[in-house]
Amino acid sequence: MSINLSTLPAKDKNKIELDKQASFLVWKLREAKASPEEITRSADKIQDPDERSMFLESIAKYKRIMGLG
């Protein structure tokens, strides 16, 4: 079963994008191409509290997956 992501509501598309950004930031952290402060700065830029919380949950998820936490 395939899902066309372009048909999702904007809020859902944004959640997917934030999850991708979280994954990339944790990868950069693992590869020593970013510091923990970069994650903090990225989270601080997110205005919506629910989206910020989801982003930080994704960060924690990817840290576990990549063996950083």
From TrEMBL:
SUPFAM superfamilies: DNA polymerase III theta subunit-like. It comes from Vibrio tetraodonis subsp. pristinus. Coiled coil: none annotated. GO terms for molecular function: DNA binding; DNA-directed DNA polymerase activity. InterPro entries: DUF3283 (IPR021700), PolIII_theta_sf (IPR036745). Pfam families: DUF3283 (PF11686). This is DUF3283 family protein. It comes from the Bacteria. GO terms for biological process: DNA replication. The lineage of its organism: Bacteria, Pseudomonadati, Pseudomonadota, Gammaproteobacteria, Vibrionales.
